[in-house]
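Recall that a protein's primary structure is simply its ordered list of amino acids. Everything else, from secondary elements to tertiary packing, is in principle encoded there. The following example makes that idea concrete.
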Amino acid sequence: MTVPIESERDDGDAMSDEEEDEEQVRAPAAVQHFTEAERAARGKAARAEVPRASHSVLESIPDRDSVGVLDEQATSRVPDLVPIRYGRMLVSAFTFYRGAAAIMARDLVSTPRAGLKVQLCGDAHLSNFGGFASPERSLVFDLNDFDETLPGPFEWDVKRLAASFEIAGRDRNFSDAERRTAVLSVLRAYRESMRNFATMANLELWYSRLDAERIMAAITVQADKKRAKAADRSLAKARSKDSMKAFTKLTEMVDGAPRIVSDAPLIVPLRDLAARTEGRDMEEEIRELLRAYRRTLQYDRRLLLEEFRYADLAHKVVGVGSVGTRAWIMLLLGKDDGDPLFLQVKEAQASVLEPHLGRSEFRNSGRRVVEGQRMMQAASDIFLGWIRSPKGVDGVARDFYVRQLWDWKSSVDLDAISPGGLELYGQACGWTLARAHARSGDRIAIASYLGKSDVFDRAVAEFAIAYADFNERDYAALRKAVESGRITAKEGA
């Protein structure tokens, strides 16, 4: 049985109390417009208060318990999946870093801040950049994970990105010189790009984007012929990674209708969970949630979504740091059973930055993610929206954001990348992060603060080395916690 998405084309629907509160928060306020000279002066003044060389500082925290931070996060996650998260973090020091955004957020609190705020990604490590399809169906390169997004000091994203290159280089056994070259390529690209964005007209900046195919082509020049061909195949594969590919891989026919396959505990269809809900009308709840989600889309995209009908839903384990949060995949069908649309419905909890930078202005964490993503990306998924489930399968209200499951998704192959390729990739990531920050922060003040010299670059490169050492100790601490029985990890899942 399929459940149609009922039409709701009347925009006069009354908003909930929460929606009204959020609209009040976002109500237009008077905006001050400073001259370029005043904005540049602000950046230079920040240098006097927070010297650029000071960003090398990383203070050790007494009684530092990184495993305790992860344990605290686990309390809000699906208990049965937490061991899978730990198992994935234990693959390497780099995969540990991918799941340790909360640990680094705590460590960054005591580091110098210039007082120049932007919309932060919150988890800007190198694996959270990649290619995906723009609404115009071109393959663009951009940030692609915003679970932790929040306004904050620009340095935090820069330091997390730089440290990720140092850690990834160690994981590949690159030399000290090769790692430093890659890290400095990130920082130089960020600084020089920010200075370039500071000279741009507002609209010119807003429309700036990177073509993913050009980046991958440049990286493959640094590889041997075998790896270059592999990269070409990867791009072709990315273009085929869409809802139809997901449909082929993730569905089977059940009683003459397509349904999501079961692969517990990584994929668990709703039909397998329904027995635990004590007879609740899950399909009616799904209809209500789809209507609520649809109202967060642009009008033309609401109409497009109405062309699809609900077919199935399943819980799916995703990522590394996200494992244990509630993530669902939803199958919708269009003109017939061969016209699929797969959506990912992913839980949004409070950002790991909020304990240190203050609560988001958005009460719905799903909306926080969506608004941050729209601000930072050059082009966002046409089905990007948010939702609040008043009573989930476990009876607890939760926030979610929604996007397409696969839409030409691609990422760099770190297992095959050369030192030269990592350097080029660093340039692309540095440019992209600068563009994202320039859209939301005072790009002229930040550019003025960074300046023409490489003082900031060298300081953050030193920070990256120190933080990679921290990360290795934290990784070892997690291994020790598993060996002692303090925590349980399920490796290989």
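The chain has a mean pLDDT of 86. DSSP finds 20 helices and 14 strands in the chain.
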